[in-house]
Design brief:
Length: about 500
């Protein structure tokens, strides 16, 4: 008989302490086309199961040493995915039923007719094949849905959630958890999908020693633990239930380790099978691919941003007075945004916007930018186009979507008299309001062709008198606090020193 999946003959391990039965079964099943090995007791069989895979284990119940039930339990505990058929006498039918509860496929009463045994084996092989095909179809569908989401969905968190949901379902797990360590492109995240268990991600994480888990996974790539084996990775925290089975796979490549995808069984005592381990590895590989794509996207984005920044720098370097302006605005904006309590991503966005806010000047005539005696009306109208030109330059880069409004509106005024759109008050994006004040602050604290930098007192009085007209009052207050606390470095000199060296 051929197994459809592998085109290998179906393999059967016959376990019986009576050599006559072993030999009879070997002969009969070999004639039927099966590949047959025989073992004389549970211990002998266990050694076979450890080193070879069998489609069916046909085992006697009563044997010296390790009996049939103990063999079945041991195979279950170690995740050895073999299907058992129990050979049993009338006196042990109860035990045979217990074996069924432990996952055995069927039982055969002794004495048996060979055709009857042949029929039960055939039925078990058929059931096993159906089960495998079913599982494979279901898994294939899940993996297909994940692949589709990876292509169509830009939201990495949504795709990660989908993978966790599928893993939970396919692995028959009570909890699945993804723990990623912080890397350049990956924040620390722990995401947990759980059925009806009352436990938080934090509790679960503290119940395991994350560092130990990570260390072992980096070396071994996966762990499939049951019972007391789980103690090897326990952490300081305690949880209110027992973890019976624990499966985890490494996320990342050999030289770039990102974290772990873990599955837990709490309600059932069944260990995870090797097939489930392999499937978890595939889920883990999908997550690795997602993170790698994100990483290379970010690398590319970084390169693009750097080249735009170098354009701004080149533009400003043509004139000693504006040299380093955008970099300084970005430093001030960073400090102000942090003091305002913006979240990490928003602080980064404002800082980035600071570096790029004047990119639109690339589209303005150079002599108009560097004129010593002010701009005439037509030149000023030209100059006012630079926020819009900047936004248009950056618009094709979707990863800059959050900072484009800041750039477009960095010359709006709080009283609505700014440009390009005359937005007022809170309708000006917060990032643009921050840039507006930092932009002016740098202009005031730098030398210009038409005047020297203003002294600190004058800068403070200018900020105060323009609060509520040009600048957002709340931001002026914070800026003044920072200035009074000496928390805003005057960067002009640092940049000018660099300039003198050239
Ligand atoms: Fe500007």
């Amino acid at each position: 008989m051929q197994s459809d999946q592998t085109k290998q003959p179906v393999s059967i391990l016959v376990v019986d302490d009576e050599s006559s039965i072993r030999e009879l079964l070997r002969e009969y099943l070999s004639i039927e086309g099966y590949r047959v090995d025989t073992a004389e007791d549970g211990n002998d069989a266990y050694a076979y199961l450890r080193k070879s895979y069998y489609d069916i284990v046909l085992t006697d119940l009563e044997m010296p040493g390790m009996n049939g039930i103990e063999l079945l339990e041991k195979a279950n505990t170690e995740g050895l995915n073999h299907k058992f058929i129990i050979l049993t006498g009338f006196g042990t039918v109860e035990t045979a039923i217990m074996a069924l509860k432990l996952g055995a496929l069927d039982y055969i009463l002794k004495p048996f007719k060979l055709e009857e045994l042949g029929f039960i084996v055939k039925k078990a092989v058929y059931r096993r094949r159906l089960e495998e095909e079913n599982i494979q179809l279901r898994e294939a569908l899940s993996l297909y849905q994940i692949s589709e989401a990876m292509i169509l969905n830009n939201n990495i968190r949504a795709v990660l959630d989908l993978i966790l949901e599928k893993a939970m379902h396919e692995l028959d797990a009570d909890i699945v958890m993804l723990t990623l360590k912080e890397t350049i492109s990956t924040p620390v995240i722990t995401r947990v999908m759980k059925s009806s268990l009352d436990i938080t991600a934090g509790e679960l994480e503290s119940a395991l020693d994350k560092e130990k888990v990570f260390k072992r996974l980096q070396a071994e790539r996966y762990m499939n633990l049951t019972g007391t084996q789980i103690d090897q990775i326990r952490g300081q925290g305690t949880i209110s239930f027992d973890i019976h089975s624990y499966l985890s796979v490494a996320i990342g490549l050999m030289d770039r380790f990102y974290g772990a995808l873990c599955a837990f069984r709490v309600k059932s005592e069944m260990p995870f099978t090797d097939a489930q381990r392999k499937l978890t590895t595939i889920f883990g590989e999908r997550i690795t691919t997602l993170l790698e794509v994100k990483r290379s996207d970010e690398g590319l984005q970084h390169a693009i941003i750097e080249s735009i920044e170098s354009l701004v720098k080149a533009l400003e370097a043509k004139d000693g007075f504006t040299r380093g302006h955008s970099e300084r605005v970005s430093v001030y904006a960073h400090i102000l945004a942090q003091r305002l309590g913006l979240d990490g991503k928003s602080v980064l966005n404002v800082t980035q916007a600071g570096r790029l806010h004047d990119i639109g000047k690339i589209g303005i005539r150079y002599d108009a930018l560097t004129k010593k005696d002010g701009l005439d009306r037509e030149e000023y109208e030209q100059f006012k186009l630079h926020p819009g030109i900047g936004a248009n330059i950056l618009r094709p880069m979707s990863f800059l979507a959050d900072i484009i409004p800041m750039i477009l509106h960095h010359h709006e005024r709080y009283d609505g008299k700014g440009y390009p759109d005359g937005l007022a008050g809170e309708s000006i994006p917060l990032g643009a309001r921050i840039l507006a004040i930092c932009d002016s602050f740098d202009v005031m604290t730098s030398d210009r062709p038409y005047r020297s930098s203003l002294p600190k007192e004058k800068v403070i009085s200018e900020l105060r008198s323009n609060s509520g007209t040009q600048f957002a009052p709340g931001l002026v207050d914070t800026m003044l606090l920072l200035l009074e606390g000496g928390e805003i470095p005057l960067l002009k000199d640092a940049f000018m020193k660099g300039h003198e060296k050239d």
